[in-house]
Amino acid sequence: MAHITVGEIPSALLREKTLAITTFFSYGISLMISFVNPFMQNAGYGNLQGRIGFVYGSVSFLAFIYVYFFLPELKGLSLEATDILFERKTPTHKFQEEGKKIMQNDDDYVEVEKLVFREDSKTGLDANK
Question: Membrane-spanning regions, if any (predicted)?
C-alpha cells in the first residue's frame, strides 16, 4: 500500500525523493520485523506464540484509523489537481468536492505552472530546459 500511495500523493517535484525515502523505510522495517518476530513468538523470549496476531492486529487497526482520517481520496482527480489541493491546504475530507471544482475550472491549472516555477526558482533549476 505504501508504494501505491506514494505514487499518487506527493507533488511531481517531490515524487522521486518521496518514493526513495518510503522504499528505504519499508525495507528497513521489514528487515527489523523479520529479525524481531521469531523472538516475540519463541517460548524462551516473548512467548506470544499465536497471540502475535493481536500485536499485528492492533498495528493494522491503528493504520486503518490513520488511512481513514488522514489520507485523501484521490479517485478521479488529476495529479495537477492534487498538487493544487495540497498547496491550498485543503482538508482531506474535502478533496473530492474541491478537486472536482478545480478540474472543471481551467484557470486553476495555470496555478500549477506557477507552483512548478516557484519550486524551480527555489532549486535553481530552469523549467524551460
Answer: 20-40, 52-71
